[in-house]
Amino acid sequence: MRVEDQKQEHTGSYYAASANDTTRYPALEGSVSTDVCIVGGGFTGVATALTLAERGYNVALIEANRVGWGASGRNGGQLINGVSGLAKIEAKHGKGIADLVWDMRWRGNTIIRERVERYSIDCDLKDGYVEVACKPSQVEDTIEAAEERAARNCPYRYEVWDREKTREMLGTDAFFGAFACYRDGHIHPLNLCAGEARAASGMGVKIFEQSPVTGIEHGDRPAVVTESGRVTADAVVLAGNAYSRLEPKHLSNLVFPAGSYIIATEPLSDELAAEINPDDVAVCDLNEIVDYYRLSADKRMLYGGACNYSGRDPKSIEAYIRPRMEKVYPQLKGSRIDFEWGGKIGIVLNRIPAVGRIHGNVYHCHGYSGHGVTATHLMGEILADAVGGTLERFDLFADMKHFRLPGSQWMGNQIIALGMMYYKIMDRL
Ligand SMILES: Cc1cc2nc3c(=O)[nH]c(=O)nc-3n(C[C@H](O)[C@H](O)[C@H](O)COP(=O)(O)OP(=O)(O)OC[C@H]3O[C@@H](n4cnc5c(N)ncnc54)[C@H](O)[C@@H]3O)c2cc1C
């Protein structure tokens, strides 16, 4: 059995160590019949399950490991826009589509905020997100972001910061300017995912953990099969993202797993936290290969980045990430690193989630290219709509052209790694 096929517990992340919901769900044993069966207990699967349960469907959700075990329970926690490039979308697809995309841009964020409120999910939700310019040429991007919002009468607070204001707000001279948006923000992702699963379970969703799905049997009522059970349903939703290898005939070479890594320092003193992030915002740079950081609720610096497209994890994540953190914050030299971990993001070449249907009743949505916290919640709603027969937004995504790289998945990853090397060099110029 390969390591990735074994049933695993949560990775050794800061999030797992500070999880406030340790509910365990049973493994699937025997036969279950339901309306919808979802494979994968990350944000995509859980958000879809919860939306369907809210609409009165009977749902079963099957997770190979633990709810939130994948990217959803390990990520940077940045509650940010998963859809960008509206000007390009408008030029290519027209104003109607661009307007729809603009509305969708906020929808995932709103769903999360509503659920945190409705289901009393304790996940350290904070307002405020800042995109920082690492070189003078990126200052233009911060101004364009503000112009786009102004043109669309964006109701949420946003600001462009010059270099001095950026230094004042982020306690570093590393950046040339920034764009701040206070509708975006940050969360403890594992606590959000577990809280949503708890809400779904409370509404009757049958959740099964430690139950890797080994295959799908297609038909009028497809069956989802594990080593010790099977679920038959009117519809199936595949939500295994970068960790899934199901349906290779239809889905291979579409989504490429890439590693992203995070370190968590010891809790910082109140003075140091106030110096480097007085507004407690999430931060992401404007490079192609992004670095991202924020403070946790107990004031640890969670610093992440360095996407690895080769499929090989670094020997020491701290050795990989610490120098990047200390370049921005020399103040953190010598601070202890208490946690280091990584996870897989699903890269899609055109950066638009790969959505579709197999044999009419097996839906899938994979590949958020590292920006999935809000986008998964939007997609959960779109998948639930599609299962119910409302296909407008589903088809918008399903009709997008996606590139498949030729050859094996391994070869595809090497090609992507080469392409990203190019972007790494460009980021340095
Ligand atoms: C280190 C890191 C940092 C990130 N930072 C951010 C960020 O700050 N902001 C942001 O917006 N996005 C971020 N992302 C991306 C974001 O986390 C993902 O886009 C999002 O969580 C994807 O959710 P998902 O449910 O589709 O996939 P996942 O959360 O990966 O869940 C898929 C689940 O499916 C299960 N599964 C797979 N195959 C099977 C099977 N055969 N049977 C049963 N279960 C199966 C897996 O065990 C897994 O639990 C980051 C990702 C990583 C890895």
The H-level CATH homologous superfamily of the largest domain, spelled out, is FAD/NAD(P)-binding domain
Weakly predicted, low-confidence segments: none
State the end-to-end CA separation.
45 Å
Going by CATH, the architecture of the largest domain would be 3-Layer(bba) Sandwich
Question: How helical, in percent, are the residues?
Answer: 25-40%
Distinct small-molecule ligands in the complex: flavin-adenine dinucleotide
Count of folded domains: 2
Structural account:
- This protein is α/β, with parallel strands linked by helices and 429 residues long.
- It folds into 2 domains: 3-74 and 190-254 and 350-398, FAD/NAD(P)-binding domain (3-Layer(bba) Sandwich); 126-185 and 256-347 and 406-429, 2-Layer Sandwich (D-Amino Acid Oxidase, Chain A, domain 2).
- 34% of the residues lie in helices and 25% in strands.
- It has 13 helices and 17 strands.
- The chain has helices spanning 14-17, 43-54, 86-93, 95-118, 139-151, 163-170, 189-202, 248-251, 270-276, 317-328, 373-387, 392-398, 409-428; strands at 30-39, 59-62, 78-79, 126-133, 158-161, 177-186, 206-208, 213-217, 223-226, 229-238, 256-265, 282-285, 292-295, 301-308, 337-347, 354-358, 362-366.
- The strands form 2 sheets. Strands 3, 4, 5, 6, 11, 12, 13, 14 and 15 form a 9-stranded mixed sheet that branches. Strands 1, 2, 7, 8, 9, 10, 16 and 17 form an 8-stranded mixed sheet that branches.
- The chain is globular.
- Flavin-adenine dinucleotide (FAD) binds at residues 39-45, 62-65, 69-72, 74-78, 80, 82, 212-213, 239-244, 246, 260, 262, 292, 304, 342-345, 368, 370-373, 376.
